[in-house]
Amino acid sequence: METKIWQRTNIQAFWGDVAASEHLVQIYENDRVFIDSLEGFAGTGLLAGNSVILVARSSVLHALDHRLRMHDFNLEKMILAGQYIPVDAHNSLASFMRNGMPDEKKFNRFCNELLSRAKNHSSHIRVFGEMVAILLEEGNFAGTLALENLWNKVCSREVLCLFCAYPQSSLHEHDHSHGTHICNSHTKVIGGWAKPSTEIFYRDSA
Questions:
Q1: Hey, how many other C-beta atoms are within 10 angstroms of the C-beta on 155?
Q2: Out of 1, 29, 161, 184, which residue is the most buried by the measure of CB atoms under 10 Å away?
Q3: What is the architecture of the domain spanning 7-204?
Q4: C-alpha 10: how far from its chain's center?
Q5: Three-point CA angle 34, 125, 182, nearest 5°
Q6: How far apart are alpha carbons 186 and 148 in whole angstroms?
């Protein structure tokens, strides 16, 4: 994993072209780095007219909401149009997790409902998911990988940009190989360290 070459580009170019149909992951060193990345992901998508789905913790949704409003995004209008769809990650997990593992039929129903709402606005869709990070923090590594694999199935049948993020601290608490397995279930890895807000570092996962 350490031998992969990192590439640097402008954040708008990355989210607009490089990652248009990728399943990406960021393993971030602190919350500030994560929210900066999420703001770039969502903000550039909204400016481009994409639909943006966010399945995140309430604290993350609140922090991003504040950032986007500072840039004069009319979130109420975008929510009504199906362009901006914020969803609580804990409630979402409860809708399809059974005995510590995702139920594929219930998960697909959950995804299809969100994607249907988003497609009412645009066929260009971005999805951020924090549910996998929650499962890992709970020590449910099998459930984490199972959910990542279900997301990969969604990516195989839908054209979308899917972004996942994990705090470094949650990986340090587990076997070192867990980080490798998680990165390998994605197409690209985004740098998780502090950097200028206009830049992004990334590399292929495989």
A1: 18
A2: 161
A3: 3-Layer(aba) Sandwich (3.40)
A4: 19
A5: 45
A6: 8
Average pLDDT across the chain, whole number? 92
Looking at the DSSP bridge assignments, the partners of residue 9 are 200
Q: Are 26 and 186 in contact (CB under 8 A)?
A: no
Round to whole Å and give the CA distance between 75 and 68. 8
Cβ–Cβ < 8 Å for 190, 183: no
Are 96 and 103 in contact by the 8 Å Cβ rule? The answer is yes
Q: Does the predicted TM-score (pTM) go above 0.85?
A: yes
Distance of alpha carbon 205 from alpha carbon 185, whole angstroms: 8
Judged by DSSP in three states, 115 sits in helix
Calculate helix-pair angle for 31-47, 58-70, nearest 10 degrees: 60
pLDDT digits (tens, 9 = 90+) for 168-181: 988 765 556 677 88
